[in-house]
Amino acid sequence: MTERLYYRDSMLREFDAVVVSCAPAPAGTGTCPQTFEVVLDRTAFYPTSGGQPFDTGSLGGSRVIDVIDRDGNEIAHIVDRAIDAGTRVHGTIDWPRRFDHMQQHTGQHVLSAAFDRLFNVRTVSFHLGAETATIDLAREVTAREVADAEAAANEVVWENREIFVRFVSEAEAQTLPLRKDPARAGELRVVEVAGFDLSACGGTHVPSAGMIGVVAVAATERFKGATRLTFVCGGRALRSHGRLRDVVTRATRVLSVLPEEIADGIERLQNELKDAGRAAKKTQEELAGFRAAGFRSGAATIGPWRGVLSAQPGCDAGALKTLASAIVSEPGYVVVLTGDGKPVPVVAARSADVAFDAGAWIKEAATALGGRGGGRPELAQGGMDATPEQVLDFAKTTVTIR
Predict the structure, then answer these.
(1) For residues 49 and 65, what is the distance between their CA atoms, to the nearest angstrom?
(2) Per DSSP, which regions of 177-238 are E strands?
């Protein structure tokens, strides 16, 4: 059984140990082509467990790239070079990574306890990611509840409450006011935030709440009928603030507003963009009306109707629809237009008095040329895996037989 040094001293950065065994790791373990599983008699490396990721670092001259808990007994260190059994090695923890995990994990205990103490809302699960961490709460919470819990958590941080770790028997655990029922039987490791939280936990934690730095809720979302809350602590909160500061600074410069006026500035731009869009659409429709007259005068005969089959470089599907609609606004016309893009945008349309199903033709073209599309009998559009010339050649032989 591996002695877990981090259980009693999460601040331990270096240690000495003896290699119990070393064997090739299963295929796909770690990121190196060939890795090895090293088991030590004792370790300060934390294995992935309880929502907290593994530690990295070095063992002698080998790089530790993963740490795995084997059924609660042995801890396997995945390394990039083999180490002979019986070798005494010096282990070094990647401290910035470990300390970051400690800040986030202890911050989670404090934040979860705040929701539990203030609103009797239980934390269902915890996940510590590379940039942010999340907790899933048992019910939906309001913005006011989030703000109050965040404030209570930070009061604990700023009071720098001490954090204790101790081991208790199963019988003693049953007498303690643990925040949630333990997931395992037998002796338990209990982490206490003085006067605020008491939880069974095997993770690494800072020794005093002040080392968390700050607890900042970054986002909330509805998740499975409850709430998923994203938060950052300590160094992550500082980096997050820096990114937000840079974004706000750039936004105020671009919008020529004060930080508190950014939302109003964006709303103003949105309204201006809508107005400009409406004006552009009106201009496009007027231009399409002028162009439509020219297309109608040069239309070819298709049975009793007149047909316009034309490629329109530089046009997207929206512009093609506007032009096609303008052409068929008068009776007696069938239109197939292509534009630029991949897949090639295609629009088919017909005047109200023409016996031509544009939607059916678009589907037929998509089947023949590759692509997809559809629409109404009077107006339809699609995207074809063909050149504009191929689309129009297909139209010349298929539109005429209707």
Answers:
(1) 16
(2) 188-193, 197-200, 215-223, 226-233
Q: CA-to-CA distance for 92 and 57, rounded, in angstroms?
A: 6
Q: Residue for token digits 């190196």?
A: 32
Q: What are the φ/ψ torsions at residue 74 (nearest 5 degrees)? A: -100, 150
pLDDT tens per residue, the chain (402 residues)? 999 999 999 999 999 999 999 999 987 666 667 899 999 999 999 999 988 999 999 999 999 999 999 887 899 999 999 999 999 999 999 999 999 999 999 999 999 999 999 999 999 999 999 999 999 999 999 999 999 999 999 999 999 999 999 999 999 999 999 999 887 788 999 999 999 999 999 999 999 999 999 999 999 999 988 999 999 999 999 999 999 999 999 999 999 999 999 999 999 999 999 999 888 888 888 888 888 989 998 898 888 899 999 999 988 999 999 999 999 999 999 999 999 999 999 999 999 999 999 999 999 999 999 999 999 999 999 999 999 999 999 999 998 644
Cβ-in-10-Å burial (0-12, 13-18, 19+) of 225 comes to exposed
What is the full DSSP assignment across 27-69?
Answer: TTSSSSSS-EEEEESEE-PPPSBTTBPPP-EEETTEEEEEEEE
What angle, 0 to 180 degrees and rounded to 10, lies between the N-to-C axes of helices 95-119 and 143-158?
120
Sign of the four-CA dihedral 305, 309, 315, 316? positive
**Which residues are bridge partners to 66 per DSSP?**
78
Q: What predicted TM-score, i.e. pTM, was given to this entire model?
A: 0.73
Sequence-distant (≥ 6) Cβ neighbours of residue 68 within 8 angstroms: 37, 47, 48, 54, 75, 76, 78
CB 98 within 8 A of CB 24: no
CA 379, distance to chain mean position in Å, is 38
Chain centre distance of CA 268: 29
> Are β-strands 3-4 and 42-43 bridged in parallel, bridged antiparallel, or unpaired?
parallel
Q: Under a CB-based contact definition with an 8 Å cutoff, are residues 228 and 221 in contact?
A: yes
Dihedral (CA of 331, 333, 339, 343) sign: positive
Helix and strand counts by DSSP (H, E) for the chain: 8, 21
